[in-house]
Design a protein that fits this description.
With 285 residues, the protein is of the alpha+beta class. It contains 6 helices and 5 strands; from the N terminus they run ααββαβαβαβα. Strands 1-2-5-3-4 form a 5-stranded mixed sheet. Helix 3 crosses helix 4. It is rod-shaped, with a radius of gyration of 56 Å. The relative contact order is 0.09. The C terminus is likely disordered.
Length: 285
């Protein structure tokens, strides 16, 4: 009987001992699970905070993009307005360029016509001069102007501004050309070398310098054309350039001789030139 009681007590103790072991294990499991849940919760909080920060940043970027879009739209509207205005200005500029090109083409045609007339004048004059005269007379067309250059020794008496007898025939031929081209003005231009005038010479009395000499020689030719050949004096101009318009250096006798010259310069009158042009495009408006 006693032995049986001891077995019962041992069994009850075993049950309590097993039950105690089972409760401790459950507790440990609960603690591990709680720790895991706590870690997961903390991670979730951190992820949520990061997500909120990202959302805030995206909202700021969206707001800035809206501002940029509004500014771009405003700039585009202004640009379209300016473009419309610029198109009008460009159209006006194109019209002006076209008018200018038309006028330039017209001037080229006029210049061609004027050059042709001057070449005819040059050819007529050259054909009228003898071979000997052509040695001392140079005829050129430069920039639409006819230049007749005559050596002083064939025009004037030695050391003087008076026309010599030898010049009469040559000047008569030049006068005929001038008379044939009544719509041209004529400038007589005297030129000297750089040698000072000889004040002691009787012919040079009251002549102060090369300016005076060049002007007097030009004036002599003008008056000769007027008095002997009937050239209208209103078409004639006399001028002197002294020693300041040399064609070559005065360092040699040949150079000085070439610089001592009188030029007869024949140019279209302004009104005759305008007749050639007719009317400029602007005048038609």
């Amino acid at each position: 009987m006693k032995r049986k009681n001891l077995l019962v007590i041992a069994a009850i103790a075993g049950v309590f001992l097993f039950s105690g072991c089972a409760s401790k294990k459950d507790l440990e499991n609960c603690q591990l699970e709680n720790k895991e849940l706590t870690g997961n919760y903390q991670n979730a909080k951190e992820q949520l905070a990061a997500a909120n920060a990202r959302v805030s940043s995206l909202e700021d970027q969206l707001a800035q993009q809206k501002k940029d879009y509004a500014a771009l739209q405003q700039s585009l509207d202004k640009s379209l307005t300016n473009t419309s205005s610029n198109n009008v200005n460009i159209s006006k500029l194109v019209d002006q360029i076209n008018e200018s090109n038309q006028y330039i083409r017209h001037l080229v045609e006029v210049k061609t016509k004027s050059d042709s007339l001057n070449l005819v004048l040059q050819n007529n004059l050259t054909r009228s001069l003898s071979r000997e005269e052509l040695k001392e007379v140079d005829v050129q067309v430069l920039k639409g102007v006819v230049y007749i250059s005559l050596a002083d020794n064939m025009l004037y008496k030695s050391g003087s501004y008076e026309i010599n007898d030898r010049a009469a025939e040559t000047l008569s031929k030049i006068a005929k050309i001038i008379m044939d081209y009544k719509d041209y003005d004529v400038l007589i231009e005297g030129n000297t070398d750089n040698v000072p005038v000889n004040a002691s010479s009787p012919q040079m009395k009251n002549i102060r310098n090369n300016w005076d000499l060049s002007c007097l020689r030009a004036s002599s030719v003008v008056q000769y054309l007027q008095n002997n050949f009937g050239v209208n004096p209103k078409r004639l101009t006399a001028g002197g350039r002294g020693e300041y318009n040399p064609v070559v250096s005065n360092s040699t006798e040949v150079g000085k001789q070439r610089n001592r010259r009188t030029q007869i310069i024949i140019t279209p009158k302004l009104d005759q030139f305008m007749d050639l042009i007719d009317k400029a495009p602007e005048a038609d408006k």
